[in-house]
Design a protein that fits this description.
It is globular and about 45 Å long. The protein has helices spanning 15-25, 46-59, 78-95, 110-131, 146-156, 167-172, 177-184, 214-223, 249-263, and strands at 2-6, 29-33, 62-71, 99-103, 134-138, 161-166, 188-193, 229-232. It has an 8-stranded parallel beta barrel with strand order 1-2-3-4-5-6-7-8, surrounded by 7 helices. Helix 1 packs parallel to helix 2. It is of the alpha/beta class.
Length: 264
């Protein structure tokens, strides 16, 4: 498997510095938080996009995903949601990133939220196919588990729409790693790993220092021969008191490599 980390762990850090961290610590790729407060976002000019893509190529590091905040199950008019998603897809294409991350963001009516998300993702799938980018619905908020996400992906039925497995949210949703993988395997784009103290305290910790079932997740993936990406999403942006990510990257990579070796 290939290893990446998210720029959510290094808020506002310029792209050259992010790439230097990836290269220095043996990470193959970077998940880019796509937000106006970050160096990479849909407002970049064509020249800025070309420069960013060239920086990645020169560093030999892959732009894994544009982690956007489009909420595809949220109530309201489809047009604004689709416009936001299409802007992310175009940015991913321009940066040569294979994936765009979206959130569910549904409300109380589960069936309605599922239908809204499936309709929008089905529409956007054609744009994604034309641009050579895949949309990944993250296990998050209203659709926290693999069982929740598959209710949307099943009706969509398009290869350009898949799943992003966030191991914290499926754990918080009470789903075992084997259950999540069984639900998402045909649609799985990649896996976000992280660690936390408890369900009540989700302050990010170094990998292996908390309660999340990382060993079980890696075992499940390896047992089935899955060879995609593991991406460390360290949520420093939301937890200022958390230790700085750069000093943890080497040990985090070593921990993942050790888990992969033990599972092989």
């Amino acid at each position: 498997m290939k290893l990446a980390f998210s720029t959510l762990g290094v808020p506002g850090l310029p792209v050259p510095d992010v790439l230097a961290l990836a290269s220095a610590h043996g990470y193959h790729g970077v998940e880019l938080r796509a937000h106006p407060e970050e160096p990479v976002h849909p407002g970049l000019s064509p020249a800025e996009r070309a420069e960013t893509a060239a920086l990645f190529r020169s560093a030999g590091v892959e732009p894994l995903c544009l982690a956007g905040y489009t909420r595809v199950a949220a109530p309201g008019d489809d047009s604004a949601v689709l416009a936001e998603l299409r802007a992310l897809l175009q940015l991913a294409h321009d940066l040569e990133a294979p994936f765009v991350r979206v959130f569910p963001g549904g409300r109380a009516d589960r069936e309605e939220a599922d239908a809204i998300a499936a309709r929008r993702l089905g529409t956007a799938a054609e744009d994604a196919a034309a641009l050579g980018v895949r949309i990944l619905l993250e296990t998050h908020d209203s659709h926290r588990t693999g069982a929740d996400v598959i209710r949307v992906l099943g009706p969509v039925g398009h290869r350009q729409v898949g799943a992003l497995w966030d191991v914290m949210h499926t754990w918080l949703g009470g789903e075992q790693p084997a259950q999540t993988y069984a639900a998402l395997a045909p649609h799985l784009g990649y896996v976000q790993v992280k660690d936390i103290t408890s369900a009540e305290d989700t302050t990010p910790l170094p990998l292996g220092a908390g309660v999340l079932p990382l060993t079980e997740c890696v075992d499940v993936l390896c047992r089935d021969g899955w060879d995609g990406w593991l991406c460390w999403e360290y949520e420093k942006r939301w937890y200022e008191q958390a230790a700085p990510l750069p000093g943890l990257l080497a040990a985090g990579r070593d921990h993942l490599v050790r888990l992969l070796g033990e599972a092989a």
